[in-house]
Amino acid sequence: MNKKSSKICKDIKSLKIQGAHRVAREGFKAFIIEMTSFKNSNQKTFQKHAKTTAYIITNLRATSPMLDNYLEDALDSINYLIKKKKPIHVIQNYLNIRLEEVLDELKNNRNKLVVFGSDLVENGDIILTHCHSTSVINSLILAKKQGKKFKVYNTESRPKYQGHDTAKELAHIKIDITMSVDSNIGNIIEKVNKIFIGADAVDKNGNLANKIGSKTIAELAKNRKKVSIYSFTELYKYDKRKKIEIEQRDPKEVADPKEFKGVKILNPAFDIIQHSYLNGIVTEIGLLTPKQFVQKAQNKIRLKPSII
């Protein structure tokens, strides 16, 4: 692979690049860099390389449907243009244009989502968030700028401690934020009235994958009628597979296996939250029920990007 695209792939694989939105953006960028730098003018060779490159990138992380959906769009476009006997340089020009479209779409969709997310914040709210969702963070920041008064609790989010970044970012703009160890969640849930989380994938039933620990939080919230739980995610995170694949990460993130001989170490990256636990999903087109999310996402993903 091209040095630039290879470097991006390594960073995604090593978790230097994290978060479904960022993984999608950088992974798609790596694909375009690779294909636009490809020198062979043979259409079949180009088509084969595109398929191989997409396969490599989509398998860097198991739970990344947003990236998968954008790559599938690109492959469909390449196949269509080759069928129409377009020369390779024309296809490469199209891919460069498509990259700019996707980058703009990702940015604009998040900005729209954040506006809808801030609408859910009301004066006096005590909100819990888990892990590090840029959409959730930016929604809270916007609510703060709007003059709303609220408090936030967040978890440290072991084993990678993404919650540390969340706490620092919110504290930086003077949001009242309290961080706690994950295992204290049973006590924290009694203090809050809303829960804001992200999502890395949403399946055909409206169930979603989010940072490990989210299932426990959702089940606790379900047992407390005064606690509402919302997920913040874009429609392109819809997962068309029969089942969301849960990424299993390096056991060393939890503990050094050499020090625990004979001990199996589990380190799943995500939990599955049942759609019935959710009060709604905040998207770039507004607040939706899980069922509405699936319908809107399926319709959007069926609409392929325009072809030159």
Structure, described:
- By secondary structure, the protein is of the alpha/beta class.
- The protein has two domains: 3-111, translation initiation factor eif-2b, domain 1 (Four Helix Bundle (Hemerythrin (Met), subunit A)), CATH 1.20.120.420; 116-302, Translation initiation factor eif-2b, domain 2 (Rossmann fold), CATH 3.40.50.10470.
- 47% of the residues lie in helices and 13% in strands.
- A hairpin with a 5-residue loop joins strand 5 and strand 6 (208-211).
- The model has no long low-confidence stretch (mean pLDDT 95).
**C-alpha end-to-end distance:** 27 Å
Question: What's the count of strands?
Answer: 10
CATH topology type of the largest domain: Rossmann fold
The H-level CATH homologous superfamily of the largest domain, spelled out, is: Translation initiation factor eif-2b, domain 2
* Overall domain count: 2
Named at the architecture level, the CATH assignment of the largest domain is 3-Layer(aba) Sandwich
**What is the CATH C level class of the largest domain, in words?**
Alpha Beta
- Low-confidence spans: none
- The percentage of residues in β strands lies in 5-15%
What is the mean pLDDT? 95
Q: Could you give a short account of the major beta sheet?
A: 7 strands, mixed
**N to C succession of SSEs:** HHHHHEHEHEHEEEHEEEEH
The class by helix and strand makeup works out as: alpha/beta
Blueprint of the fold:
Elements: H1 3-13, H2 20-36, H3 43-58, H4 65-83, H5 88-119, E1 126-129, H6 134-145, E2 151-155, H7 162-172, E3 176-180, H8 185-188, E4 194-197, E5 201-202, E6 208-211, H9 214-222, E7 228-232, E8 270-273, E9 280-283, E10 286-288, H10 290-302
Parallel strand pairs: 1-2, 1-4, 2-3, 4-7, 7-9
Antiparallel strand pairs: 5-6, 6-8, 9-10
Helix pairs in contact: 1-2, 2-3, 2-4, 2-5, 3-4, 4-5, 5-6
